[in-house]
Amino acid sequence: MNNVYIDGQTFYPSSIKRAGYLSMLSKDNRLDTHFILRDKYRAGTTSTSGKQKSMDEFYENIFNNAYTFCSRGVGNFSVRFYETLAMGRIPVLLNTDCKLPLDSEIDWKNHCVIIKEAEVKTMPEKIVAFHERLSNEAFENLQLNNRKLWETKLMRHAYFIAIHEVFMTKLGVHE
């Protein structure tokens, strides 16, 4: 028992919290929400065709909406955050003290709406304010830039190149 490692994270009821946040957002008449609410992950389906259908619906929903709410899961990160960027859309990130990658290289507040968990009750106002600051052209460019960010910094191969560059810079080595 000398090599026992315990993850120090406290329990986080992500599904319960997410449901509450989605409910709050859907009740705000300034926001046009299109949430797909499910009782279980992937609609509880176990068949290959059912899983594919729920996955297609999930990605189609992200694609058809400019903004996507991204809250953490059991771990302190959101896969949906990266899926949203990959689709060239704008994440609305509930920041639960998560660490975003390449934060010395990427000014994340220029790519997404970031809301501190302590300020969650003002989330609708923050989303509206973020959107109202953008001209139509800036709104379209943000989506294009988010896809470009995914391709150049966050896809697996691009991410490891970016990490290597950051590491070499910190070491003072210039290739």
UniProtKB/TrEMBL annotation:
InterPro entries: Exostosin_GT47 (IPR040911). Residues 50-125 form the Exostosin GT47 domain. Pfam families: Exostosin_GT47 (PF03016). This is Exostosin family protein.
